[in-house]
């Protein structure tokens, strides 16, 4: 079996603040294969963005990776030297950020910001780089690409800027793209366009994609597999259809239930009671326990380990929801 | 215990945060020291350097540590007229701090009033006042002071007037921008709804909330005022020769420096430095901890 | 863009006019200039004659009008002391002051920006913190005192550099410049550094706070995610962003530098406009005072104007906004 493109193994990224330790990512394990789309789902504060940054080594102090491995094509890069990470970033692993307004430098032209991503990794002529930049813009569907290259970020709309960000990500044909909520700040119509663009590109090039979001509906249509994160831990994992049709973890169930479209008209919206817990100085016990309708006494005392079932599904729960579809 | 003294009131939190920086605390202590010396100069100084009867020309240009004709040691030496440098410094500090504080005080009152009025009433009043402020602030203080001294002539009161005119615009501008932010806030609307008179709103409600940034501006400006006065006196267009001034002492000693008699300029200079740096350290640190943008 | 320029020109003209009124009223109307020129024993007839000769018997507004007319022609009166047209005396001294001011600005920028950026990027290191403390000292210390210390240290104790004066000059285009000769350079270094100190500290602090604000921005993180080298991120992305506020502030401060040269020139006996004005105030040589103040105001207005244009060129957001309006 060929190796996974990305295999994250028991990753721990903790923040050492003045007030204590925040375990933003605690013991997360997942993998993505070539051409696969993995959806990383969770509320804000669940640790999904930090996971994305950890993979690229972009976690800022006071946070750092305190344990686990991040295997990119077999090689562990969790504690790799900065020089090596710089070589990988933008070339083999690319990232798309959430807020298109802030990710482009306002005082530099678009062509500069695109070509520098190429020139940082390859020795090509300026003209060749410019050509590739133009092609990338065309691929993401930006009209009159040659002219737009000379423009500044503030002359683009939000959707356009995000396309530029995507173009930047695909410039060097990376093996892995990590997209951190790339459509959250955009209109719904633009959202679907962006999703289509990314999907097509990944399919054509066999690029692996980790799509981080809080929006289940996006994941349902886009991802092959899904990881549900809560309070720094991955509470459920598996094929997207299986998980969404047959959730085992109470949180996943609650999440699915609170999506408006899934309810019949007239029925009250399901809500998960309570609030996301603080991740500061947490102790033992399942962090979802006080919001869970099915919590047992064990749940408060002990932290649930990972239970694996067939077909690559897993979850962390002492009292999982019953299986609906056989096996 | 009054509210200000409660453990977690904003004032106490500020004090605690301030204490975290050793450098800033040192600055504060330094400043306190200077103030004490300045206030008690007549009592502390061994000689009144401006009382001609106490001077002896035979004692002129003595090096630091030499003894006078009647057995008194001149710790920091004497100048060309036999004046004890140490005493000169003490009286000089007194004058410098006095001038600086007085001018800052009046400039603060004038500037704050105008700034508050400008912010609260807005419209044409605001535009006019701010136009004047901008005009004045676009010229460097030294130039404004130069012009004023050229027009007014010499004298302690003239210098104070000049310093007031130089400073008020800074206060006006700062308090106006703070007040503008505050005016938008709801508690002002609430007060207006209660039909309180404009004056009352401006002074009782608006003013206290504008204090933090003003503290920073005041410290910086006082230091700048002291520096400016010393500079003007050094150049000969500041305080008259009859008034003790550190700037004047320094300028007196200038010509003697090249022949190695450094103490006449050096020590007064160090004293001036000490005063200004202390105040700036305090102001700088206050600015850092009061700056909302740098709060993590 | 044109509208922008015209608007600024109109504002500048207004400022100049106001200044001329203030200067005129302040200098000519306050006190009686005749008194210093005539010996105290002069009788009334002589005083009257001198008064009429100087045009001081006419009503104030008429005097101002004559003054304005002459000023536009370039005639700002003759110096009482030098017996030459005031403008000419000032222009003779101007190159010296400008040379000093520009050299000081050069030092402030070339040293200040790198030091400030370093302090911003390495704010927790010893060197970083030293730079910051140094900058506090830099703007606290009164310039004249620093000048004295420079002289004491470098001229008296170490004997490396001269203690004053301008040294050899080389003539270019009819003006004297000292940085073109080795001896001139030796004389230029200390006063220029002295004048630069305040601005240097300001630049360091500006650069540092600019760096600290920009470092946490998302586009820096994105640049890292693209795999750009640290050199490029700092040298291009960061630098261009902090250059804008730094240059605007410095540009505005150039005028202040020229004004502040007054102190440095006095300490170092540098034969520029500044020393001239101090001496002139002392003897109440009013034409010189008026001429100096007007020239300085003109320079200020001009500098502000140029900086505004420059700012819109550097910051594309400002430039394009004006285009639309």
Summarize the structure.
The complex is a heterotrimer of chains A (327), B (296) and C (325). Chain B is mainly α.
Q: What's the SSE pattern of chain B?
A: HHHHHHHHHHHH
Radius of gyration of chain B: 23 Å
Q: What are the segments of chain B in which pLDDT stays under 50 over at least 5 consecutive residues? A: none
Helix tally of chain A equals 12
Mean of the pLDDT scores of chain A?
84
Distance between the termini of chain B: 31 Å
- Structural shape of chain B: elongated
Order of helices and strands of chain A: EEEHEEHEHHHHHEHEHEEHHHEE
**Percent of residues in helices of chain B:** over 70%
Unreliable residue stretches of chain A: none
Largest interface: B-C, 41 and 47 residues
The class by helix and strand makeup of chain A works out as alpha/beta
Main sheet summary of chain B? none
Instruction: Please tell me the overall pLDDT of chain B.
Output: 77
Counting copies of identical and different chains, the oligomeric state is: heterotrimer
N- to C-terminal distance of chain A: 25 Å
Summing up helix and strand content along with how strands pair, one would put the structural category of chain B as mainly alpha
Strand content of the residues of chain B, in percent? under 5%
Helix content of chain A: 25-40%
Write the topology of this structure.
The complex is a heterotrimer of chains A (327), B (296) and C (325).
Chain A: E1 6-17, E2 20-32, E3 37-41, H1 48-56, E4 63-72, E5 75-76, H2 82-88, E6 93-96, H3 100-103, H4 110-119, H5 126-139, H6 145-148, H7 158-170, E7 176-180, H8 188-205, E8 208-213, H9 216-222, E9 225-230, E10 233-239, H10 240-245, H11 250-257, H12 297-301, E11 307-308, E12 314-315
Parallel strand pairs in A: 3-8, 3-9, 6-7, 7-8
Antiparallel strand pairs in A: 1-2, 1-4, 4-5, 9-10, 10-12, 11-12
Helix pairs in contact in A: 4-5, 5-7, 7-8
Chain B: H1 10-19, H2 22-39, H3 41-44, H4 85-121, H5 123-137, H6 141-152, H7 156-183, H8 186-193, H9 198-209, H10 211-235, H11 246-257, H12 263-290
Chain C: H1 2-29, H2 34-37, H3 44-53, H4 60-73, H5 86-121, H6 126-140, H7 143-157, E1 170-172, E2 175-177, H8 182-215, H9 218-225, H10 230-268, H11 273-283, H12 286-314, H13 316-324
Antiparallel strand pairs in C: 1-2
Helix pairs in contact in C: 1-4, 1-12, 5-6, 5-8, 5-10, 5-12, 6-8, 7-8, 7-10, 8-10, 10-11, 10-12, 11-12, 12-13
């Amino acid at each position: 079996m060929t190796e996974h493109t990305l295999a994250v193994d028991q990753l721990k990224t903790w923040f050492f603040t003045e007030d204590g330790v925040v375990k933003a990512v605690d013991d997360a394990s997942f993998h993505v294969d070539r051409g696969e789309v993995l959806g990383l789902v969770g509320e804000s504060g669940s640790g999904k963005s930090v996971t994305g940054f950890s993979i690229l080594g972009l976690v800022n102090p006071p946070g750092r990776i305190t344990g686990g491995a991040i295997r990119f094509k077999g090689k562990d890069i969790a504690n790799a030297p900065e020089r090596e990470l710089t070589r990988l970033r933008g070339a083999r692993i690319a990232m798309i950020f959430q807020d298109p307004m802030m990710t482009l430098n306002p005082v530099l032209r678009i062509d500069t910001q695109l070509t520098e991503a190429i020139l940082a990794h390859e020795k090509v002529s300026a003209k060749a780089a410019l050509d590739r930049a133009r092609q990338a813009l065309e691929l993401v569907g930006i009209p009159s690409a040659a002219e737009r290259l000379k423009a500044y970020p503030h002359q683009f709309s939000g959707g356009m800027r995000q396309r530029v960000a995507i173009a930047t990500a695909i410039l060097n044909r990376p093996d892995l793209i990590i997209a951190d909520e790339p459509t959250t700040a955009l209109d719904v119509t633009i959202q679907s366009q962006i999703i289509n663009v990314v999907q097509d590109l990944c399919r054509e090039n066999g690029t692996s994609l980790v799509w981080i979001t809080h929006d289940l509906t996006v994941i349902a249509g886009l991802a092959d597999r899904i990881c549900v994160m809560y309070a720094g831990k991955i509470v459920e994992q598996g094929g997207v259809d299986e998980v969404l049709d047959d959730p085992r973890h109470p949180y996943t169930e609650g999440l699915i239930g609170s999506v408006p479209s899934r309810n019949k008209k007239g029925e009250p919206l399901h809500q998960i009671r309570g609030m996301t817990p603080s991740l500061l100085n947490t102790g033992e016990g399942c962090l979802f326990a006080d919001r869970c309708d099915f919590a047992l006494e064990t749940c408060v005392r002990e932290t649930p380990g990972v239970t694996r079932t067939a077909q690559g599904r897993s979850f962390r729960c002492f009292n999982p929801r019953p299986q609906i579809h056989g096996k | 215990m009054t509210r200000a003294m409660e453990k977690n009131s904003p004032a106490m939190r500020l004090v605690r945060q301030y204490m975290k920086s050793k450098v800033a605390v040192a600055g504060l202590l330094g400043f306190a020291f200077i103030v004490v010396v300045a206030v008690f100069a007549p009592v502390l100084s061994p000689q009144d350097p401006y009382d001609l009867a106490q001077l002896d020309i035979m004692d002129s240009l003595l090096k630091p540590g030499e003894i006078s004709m009647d057995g008194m040691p001149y710790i920091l030496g004497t100048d060309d007229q036999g004046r004890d440098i140490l005493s000169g410094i003490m009286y000089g500090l007194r004058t410098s701090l006095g001038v600086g504080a007085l001018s800052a005080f009046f400039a603060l009152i004038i500037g704050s009033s105008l700034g508050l009025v400008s912010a609260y009433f807005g419209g044409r009043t605001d535009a006019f006042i701010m136009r004047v402020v901008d005009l004045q602030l676009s010229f460097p203080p030294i130039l404004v002071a130069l012009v004023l001294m050229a027009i007014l002539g010499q004298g302690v009161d003239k210098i104070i007037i000049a310093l007031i005119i130089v400073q008020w615009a800074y206060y006006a501008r700062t308090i106006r921008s703070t007040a503008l932010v505050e005016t938008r806030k709801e508690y002002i609307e609430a007060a207006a709804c209660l039909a309180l008179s404009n004056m009352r709103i401006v002074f009782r409600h608006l003013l206290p909330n504008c204090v933090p940034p003003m503290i920073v501006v005041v410290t910086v400006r006082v230091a700048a005022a002291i520096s400016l006065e010393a500079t003007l006196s050094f150049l000969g267009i500041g305080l008259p020769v009859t008034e003790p001034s550190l700037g004047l002492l320094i300028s007196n000693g200038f010509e003697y420096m090249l022949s190695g008699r450094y103490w006449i300029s050096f020590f007064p200079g160090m004293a001036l430095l000490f005063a200004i740096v202390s105040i700036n350290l305090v102001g700088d640190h206050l600015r850092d901890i009061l700056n909302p943008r740098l709060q993590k | 863009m044109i509208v922008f320029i015209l608007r600024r020109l109109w504002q500048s003209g207004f400022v100049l006019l106001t200044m001329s009124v203030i200067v005129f009223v302040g200098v000519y109307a306050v006190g009686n200039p005749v008194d210093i020129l005539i010996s105290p024993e002069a009788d009334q007839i002589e005083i009257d004659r001198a008064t009429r000769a100087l045009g001081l018997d006419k009503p104030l507004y008429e005097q101002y009008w004559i003054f304005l007319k002459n000023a536009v022609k370039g005639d700002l009166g003759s110096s009482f002391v030098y017996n030459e047209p005031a403008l000419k005396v000032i222009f003779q001294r101007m190159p010296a002051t400008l040379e000093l001011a520009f050299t000081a600005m050069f030092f402030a920028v070339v040293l200040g920006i790198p030091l400030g950026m370093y302090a911003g990027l390495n704010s927790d290191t010893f060197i970083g913190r030293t730079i910051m403390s140094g900058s506090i000292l830099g703007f606290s210390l009164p310039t004249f005192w620093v000048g004295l210390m420079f002289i004491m240290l470098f001229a008296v104790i170490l004997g490396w550099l001269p203690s004053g004066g301008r040294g050899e000059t080389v003539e270019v285009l009819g003006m004297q410049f000292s940085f073109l000769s080795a001896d001139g350079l030796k004389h230029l270094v200390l006063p220029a550094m002295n004048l630069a100190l305040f601005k240097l500290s300001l630049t360091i602090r500006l650069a540092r706070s600019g760096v600290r604000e920009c470092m946490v921005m998302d586009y820096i993180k994105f640049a890292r995610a693209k795999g750009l080298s640290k050199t490029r991120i700092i040298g291009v992305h960061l630098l261009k962003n902090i250059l804008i506020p730094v240059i605007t502030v410095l540009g505005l401060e150039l005028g202040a530098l020229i004004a502040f040269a007054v102190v440095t020139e006095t300490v170092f006996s540098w034969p520029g406009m500044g020393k001239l004005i101090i001496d002139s105030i002392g003897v109440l040589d009013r034409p010189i005072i008026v001429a100096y103040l007007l020239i300085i105001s003109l320079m200020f207005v001009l500098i502000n104007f140029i900086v505004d244009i420059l700012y819109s060129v550097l910051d594309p957001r400002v430039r394009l906004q004006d285009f639309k309006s």
